[in-house]
Amino acid sequence: MESLDLWPQLVALGKVVAIDLVLAGDNAIVVGMAAAAVPLAQRRKVIFWGIAAAIVLRIFFALITTQLLAIIGLTLAGGVLLLWVCWKMYRELSTHGRDEVAPDEALEAPDVPAAGGAGAVGTGAAVAAGATTVGAAIWQIVVADVSMSLDNVLAVAGAAKDHPTILVIGLVLSVVLMGAAANMIAHLLHKHRWIGWVGLAIITYVALDMIWRGSREVLQHTAWLFQGA
């Protein structure tokens, strides 16, 4: 009987680990592509602040997860947001990662001229009409980090459901992976594309489940609007 009781938690843990792996790798690639578009001497700074922002935002959203989930309609909105993430992941996987650049690859990519300089073509994200400024690159990453960190936390919460211990493990794991292994995961996902497809399937399932549960939640709390109709 204990093994039967443990099975739902193991399934939830498996989903959470897959989600954290895929989204940490995806976030690292965003950082790498933005870094590849700035001059070589400034790329380490962009990568550092990009990953630091992702870690801080994941910690912030993790700390307020309970309050977030208490907001009526956020589960539904989070499910819709995750579907958008799934669509972007599908397009990336379909192109076989041709334009993906991991952070360490950004450091090895050809240099690009300063913004406004002569055109040059680097690897992946390098721009054709001069490099992006450091400030613009960091801002681009931070904006992406806000969305991706929120996506990560909501996806983990959606997968963990009624297993608070799995939720905590998933949130801590998302922070650790982003801080310590994001670059390695980005390479892993690029080399073994099937991991990305498995992650995509799991996140799609979680998104649809969140939309279903969120819709029921919204209907339950708005039923009184139609009682007098």
Automatic annotation (TrEMBL):
UniProt entry tagged with the keyword Cell division: no
Membrane topology: Multi-pass membrane protein
Any single GO CC term annotated in Swiss-Prot or TrEMBL for this entry: membrane
Chief location: membrane
UniProt xrefs under InterPro entries: Integral_membrane_TerC (IPR005496), Integral_membrane_YjbE (IPR022301)
The keyword GTP-binding belongs to this UniProt entry's keyword annotation: no
Keyword field: Membrane, Transmembrane, Transmembrane helix
Subcellular locations according to the entry: Membrane
Record-annotated membrane-spanning stretches: 12-34, 46-64, 70-90, 166-188, 194-212
Record NCBIfam families: R_switched_YjbE (TIGR03717)
Entry similarity comment: Belongs to the TerC family.
Protein name: TerC family protein
Organism annotation: Azospirillum doebereinerae
